């Protein structure tokens, strides 16, 4: 789940409190913000505009089934995103610091 709550980015695997991370800063209004979220096997991490990396312990439980990927709303959509999402990219591995910086600096995928 990726949502905006109280001006902060919220990311989680399933909305459960054990695996939720919030950005350490409030998003500025009317400005594009670059966000990278990843799980390294132990922690859920969030980086905003190639800056500080926020982290929280989170265990991803793969139940072997398919799950929905949600952008911009929590649960049944009771907190919809009021804004735009652009250039969403998903990798099957954790990007290195250099790769994340390349995406940030170029505005294009790696």
Mean pLDDT: 77
Arrangement of strands in the largest sheet: 1-2-3
Helix fraction, binned, reads under 10%
- How do the SSEs run, as a string of H and E? EEEEEEH
Rg calculated over all Cα atoms: 14 Å
The major beta sheet can be summarized as: 3 strands, antiparallel
Tally of alpha and pi helices: 1
* Amino- and carboxy-terminal Cα gap: 23 Å
Strand content: 25-35%
Shape: globular
List segments where confidence is low: pLDDT < 50 over at least 5 consecutive residues.
none
Count the beta strands: 6
Helix/strand class: mainly beta
Account of the 3D structure:
The chain is mainly beta and 110 residues long. The protein has one helix at residues 97-106; strands spanning 2-5, 8-12, 20-22, 35-39, 43-48, 53-57. The strands form two sheets. The chain has a three-stranded antiparallel β-sheet, with no helix packed on it. It has a three-stranded antiparallel β-sheet with strand order 4-5-6, with no helix packed on it. The longest helix has 10 residues, at 97-106. The mean pLDDT is 77.
Task: Please give the structural blueprint.
Blueprint: E1 2-5, E2 8-12, E3 20-22, E4 35-39, E5 43-48, E6 53-57, H1 97-106
Antiparallel strand pairs: 1-2, 2-3, 4-5, 5-6
């Amino acid at each position: 789940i990726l949502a905006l709550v109280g001006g902060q980015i919220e990311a989680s695997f399933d909305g459960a409190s054990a695996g939720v991370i919030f950005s350490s800063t409030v998003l500025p209004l009317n400005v594009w913000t670059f966000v990278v979220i990843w799980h390294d096997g132990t922690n859920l991490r969030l980086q905003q505009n190639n800056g500080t990396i926020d982290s929280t312990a989170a265990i991803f439980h793969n139940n072997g089934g398919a799950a929905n990927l949600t952008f911009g709303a929590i649960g049944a959509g009771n907190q919809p995103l009021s804004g735009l999402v652009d250039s969403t990219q998903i990798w099957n591995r954790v990007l290195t610091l250099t790769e994340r910086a390349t995406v940030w600096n170029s505005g294009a995928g790696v």
